Amino acid sequence: MNGAELLVKTAVASGVEVCFANPGTTEIPIVMALDSTPGIKVYLGLFEGVCTGAADGYGRMLDKPAMALLHLGPGLANGIANLHNARRAGSPVLNVVGEHATWHRDADPPLAMDIGGLARTVSGWWRTSASAEDIARDVSEAAAAARLGQVATLIVPNDYQLAQCEDRQAPACAVSFDPIDPGSIEAAASRLRAFSKVALILGPRALRKPGLDAASRIKKATGCDLLAQNLPGYMDRGMGLPLVERIPYFPEQATALLSRYEGVLLAGSPEPVTFFGYPGVKSRILSDEQERITLCADRQDVIEALECLANALGAPVHIREAPDILAKKLERAPLPDGNLTVEKACLTLAALQPENAIVVDEAITSGRLYFTLTQGLPPHTVITGSGGSIGQGIPCATGAAIACPDRPVINLQADGSAMYTVQALWTQAREGLNVTTLICSNRSYRILQMEMSRAGITSCGPKARALTELIRPAIDWVQVAQGFGVPGVSVRTAEGLARELKKALEEPGPHLIEMLLP
Ligand SMILES: Cc1ncc(C[n+]2csc(CCOP(=O)(O)OP(=O)(O)O)c2C)c(N)n1
Ligand SMILES: [Mg+2]
Questions:
Q1: pLDDT at 331 (0 to 100)
Q2: Residues 9, 19: contact at Cβ < 8 Å?
Q3: Pocket of ligand 1, candidates 249, 417, 452: which has the most ligand atoms within 8 Å of its Cβ, to mutate?
Q4: Is the torsion defined by CA of 44, 49, 50, 52 positive or negative?
Q5: Ligand 1 atom, smallest distance to 366 CA
Q6: 198 and 269 in contact (C-beta within 8 Å)?
Q7: Which of 13, 206, 295, 347 could anchor a disulfide with 202, C-beta 3.0 to 4.6 Å?
């Protein structure tokens, strides 16, 4: 056995089932080991941001790590933006990066760079293996670290991948969150009781069904409101789950919402801050007088903490019918007609979205209405941006479809953001994934145009226009899709969208629908 085989064997023993890879020469032993050591399915991503975004999407859905396999520092650098999103979403990712042979490093070959320096910026855990034998322990610890909801990066020199070593059994590495301290739960409970108006802000790991169930109980006991960050990352929602309001993007609206509360309870979520530093606007949305209560630390299990808090508050154990807390069944809105607008696009999706859908929302300015229109639909999952780094949608949808092959995936996708990692469509075609990509084709970086007008800029020069418009030429989405092996169609009306969306959801395999928007 060599180090690479030990790596794969230990990953399998640690519960890793899939690998999103874009390998190079330094990872060839691992590529060979994926064949000789069974247990891991492999998916080629044609850019590292596709691999890391897919690993993120997979991790968000299953709350267990996929492996991303990347080539040296440059490969990791290409994958970093989506690892940043994974970090912000609390996604588990086992990130394996090949390194030059240790004896070759001194020669400073062209591809050499500081891999550790890059890894540190996005990883909660990172290590460079120090021998072939150590790889067993390293992989096992990395996978356990990832399961705590973080990126774990293991850098593996090529000579250790090749070196013969004993067939070691890594000591099973139990996933262990730090214990919850009953004193801090009691303290949170007594503060909550003292307030008449309080918001419970749920982080991405708390927005899974068990976390939401516990949050509903807390709401029942205290009357608190349930909020999520503007980019919540992951959310189970729909009929029978509690209503959770997203904190608005723009600071004035966010401040108007949050100023209603005497205090906030942060459950696996950071304190809300504005996206950018706008002159004259405070970074922190809460005032100094509003109390911030932190429910648990990073290394504690937020769902367990919420359950403990619900118990401490004496909340009822089950909440079945509570119209003030749980989303009521929504009668589906009728299908709109006429020329498409962002509103009609969202209405059409809300009218046709199947039960159990996974909706990957990177619609930026086009998706605002979607969220409010769909809260009482049959249960579904929404994956959103998390770290604000665009180019996450198509890869995340790819990973989510691989994680949950029986669930329809709908990717509501802004056009500018789509172009960063558009080649993920090829992976969808190759794997026959059930993903419907709805391109919000407004042929612009509309959000930047909106930010400019917010900043009081009333007229744009030709350079500012050139840098925010996606025209001359317009992107031909039908041909782009077809070039990657995905059937593509363009629609201009709401009727056309409804027809094509129904068709795409019925037929197996990926589809792309360009929605021509004003
Ligand atoms: C990696 C990265 N590069 C650039 C940006 C800055 N940025 C934010 S939104 C955006 C363009 C959004 O355009 P589009 O995706 O078409 O959405 P729209 O605003 O048109 O709805 C850009 C360039 C970013 N957030 N992340
Ligand atoms: Mg756009």
A1: 83
A2: no
A3: 417
A4: positive
A5: 21
A6: no
A7: 206
Q: Which residues line ligand 1 (CB under 6 A)?
A: 81, 364-366, 388-391, 414-417, 442, 444-448
Q: Which residue has the tokens 């062209």?
A: 110
Query: From the CA of 420, how far away is ligand 1's center (Å)?
Result: 10
Specify the 3-state DSSP secondary structure of 326: strand
Rounded to whole angstroms, the Cα distance separating 212 from 17 reads 28
Expressed in angstroms and rounded, the spacing between residue 424 Cα and the centre of ligand 2 is 18
- Of 513, 352, 276, 518, the residue nearest 418 (C-alpha): 513
**Helix residue spans in 180-301 (DSSP H):** 182-194, 209-222, 251-258
Q: Measured between alpha carbons, how far is 117 from 226 in angstroms, rounded to an integer? A: 38
Q: How far is the CA of 345 from the centre of ligand 2 (A)?
A: 14
The three-class DSSP label of residue 470 is coil
What confidence score (pLDDT) does residue 332 get? 86
pLDDT in tens, 162-190: 999 998 777 777 778 999 999 999 999 99
- The span from the CA of 115 to the CA of 121, in Å, is 10
pLDDT of the residue at 430: 98
Tell me the C-alpha distance between 113 and 325, whole Å: 53
Helix (H, G, I), strand (E, B) or coil at 172: coil
Q: What's the confidence (pLDDT) of residue 263?
A: 96
Tokens found for residue 99: 């390194």
Q: Which residue puts its alpha carbon closest to atom 16 of ligand 1?
A: 416
Q: What is the mean pLDDT of residues 328-342?
A: 91
Locate 133 and state its tokens. Answer: 């034998």
End-to-end CA distance of the chain: 60
Is 439 within 8 Å of 514 (Cβ atoms)? yes
Whose CA is closest to atom 7 on ligand 1? 390
- Could you give the C-alpha distances from 260 to 94, 253, 257, 287, in angstroms and in order? 41, 12, 6, 11
Residue for token pair 């579904």: 380
Measure the CA–CA gap between 96 and 86, rounded to whole angstroms: 15
Q: What percent of the chain has pLDDT over 70?
A: 99
Q: How far apart are CA 344 and CA 497, in angstroms?
A: 9
Burial (CB count <10 Å: 0-12, 13-18, 19+), residue 323: exposed
Instruction: Name the residue type at position 6.
Output: L
Atom index in ligand 1 nearest the CA of residue 416 equals 16
Residue 320 banded pLDDT, cuts 50, 70, 90: confident
Predicted confidence (pLDDT) at residue 516 exceeds the cutoff of 90: yes
Among 30, 39, 92, smallest CA distance to 65 is for 92
For residue 232, the one-letter residue type is P
